[in-house]
Write a structure and sequence with these properties.
The structure is a homodimer.
Chain A lengths: L12 H15 L7 H8 L4 H13 L3 E3 L7 E3 L3 H8 L9 H15 E10 L20 E5 L14 E5 L14 E5 L9 E6 L4 E10 L2 E5 L8 E3 L5 E13 L6
Parallel strand pairs in A: 3-5
Antiparallel strand pairs in A: 1-2, 3-4, 5-6, 6-11, 7-8, 7-11, 8-9, 9-10
Chain A binds a DNA duplex (30 and 30 nucleotides) through helix 3.
Chain lengths: ~250, ~250
DNA sequence: CTTGACACAGAACGCATGTTCGTGTTATCA
DNA sequence: TGATAACACGAACATGCGTTCTGTGTCAAG
């Protein structure tokens, strides 16, 4: 959002200093600085001030940040170029040659081929694949841009895809025919969406998982629906966690 | 100390995999992986095993580590060189430079960058973009594999993305935060999903569209919900058709 | 058969690290 | 002059993360 008022155009001294630190850390030690290392290097005494400036630099297009990740900062523009571009009061860096270069550099790595290991239905456990995907051919792969994956999963090599069969996942806001991208998991954090097999009901369901005081709460994605509470966590067999849902809208509804 | 016994010369499969992960992380996300991210990317379930291998790789001279620092790993030798130095045949190198170039060109073509032109809410018409996307920068693009698009849209150049804001699209099986990929359209075929602005209700909705005997039926994606019938088609302003929905499942539900 | 090296694994711990909150100061604008 | 935004800061919290410990299984050598 455009600020109503700014002290001056271009980059402030502290912004420039932070960009210079980001630039310098690429060379030595060869990885981005932490927030506290930026503090130290810029004589800023508070991590929240560094965070404040990093958010500005991200909004201006000079850096990218990955949230809740240590050292999750990418310098998008070389320092000298950023400082000189800022001299012309840029609000964001144009796509230009830099973006093209980045596109070419990252193109191969950006496109993941994820095997489709089967279908997910309510009446059977999830077909979690074996670890070796070598035998999958192109027709049983789904291609996903790496950038669409949540930050934590961008480096994953064991994702698999399932095609949804039937209307039983409606409470998860997942439609017949949707593709669910999953990661094998036997345990998850509270708040993550999981596929669970409820062995007392012979049923698979997709829900947000919470373990609260020894009891499991399975929260539907549809905010108008009520959670399931399960007193005995052993009936809940976690089969994987959901990282992404893809709906190709083309055909007629069934 | 020289090991008394080694299974075989050169690098083990896991060492090679770890080096490959270190190499790949330099490109995306642009900073070294954490120990746990190396775990995830190599199917090693224990951080101590990763630590065990990293210590070996450091001792062998392939990497440097800074202690008690997150992501404190520097790759000293490019992956290909490390692996060939270790005396192992490398599948990716053996594929040939020509094939690599061919893959690179194909990958660029396979990965579409679609501009995010705004948010879709119930209370306002859809922000359909102008035809020239040149001014969009990387932060307002979503990357989608061309193969995921419905057949008819694979050649489209005018797709745009919207981010869903609020719970008002639940009947379309679309969640707050989802990304909807759309194509500009003023007319659609029966059975296609559209974004329509109902100017008698000041409301945007996503539904399957049918024009039947001069009357519009708007069918929710959720099969348990009833359609809307509109006798006067002129109140239905088609703003675009939905070709894809993407849900990134990561954070806690709102 | 025993032994020791290697490979692997889970768990726990403590520190590293990012985010958020509340508060204060200063510059700008109407 | 008062209101407001920008700038600045300390503290606290929660999570990310590296290291260490303990244990188990496999296998080659003696």
């Amino acid at each position: 959002m455009m600020m109503a008022r700014k002290r001056k155009k271009g980059l402030s001294d502290r912004q420039k200093k932070i960009l210079e630190v980001l630039d310098r850390f690429q060379v030595d030690p060869g990885y981005p600085p932490s927030i506290r290392e930026i503090c130290d290097a810029t004589d800023i005494s508070s991590t929240s001030v560094v965070n404040y400036y990093l958010e500005q630099l991200q909004e201006m297009g000079f850096i990218e940040r990955d949230q809740h990740v240590s050292r999750g900062i990418r310098l998008l523009v070389p320092y000298e170029e950023a400082v000189s571009a800022a001299g012309s009061a840029l609000e964001s860096v144009s796509s230009g040659l830099k973006q093209t270069a980045r596109n070419l550099r990252q193109a191969v790595d950006e496109l993941l081929k994820i095997p489709i290991s089967g279908r997910i239905v309510a009446s059977a456990p999830v077909p979690v694949p074996q670890s070796d995907f070598g035998y999958y051919d192109a027709e049983s792969m789904v291609e996903v841009a790496r950038s669409l994956l949540p930050g934590r999963e961008k480096g994953s090599t064991d994702l698999f895809a399932l095609e949804v069969s039937g209307d039983s996942m409606i409470d998860a806001m997942v439609n017949d025919g949707d593709i669910v991208i999953m990661k094998p998991a036997k345990e998850v954090r509270n708040g993550e969406m999981v596929a669970v097999w409820l062995n007392d009901r012979d049923e698979t369901t997709l829900k947000y998982f919470y373990l609260e005081n020894g009891r499991v709460r399975l929260q539907p994605a549809n905010p108008t629906m009520n959670p399931i509470f399960i007193e005995d966590p052993s009936v809940v067999e976690i089969q994987g966690k959901v990282v992404m849902v893809i709906r190709q809208v083309g055909g007629l509804p069934s």
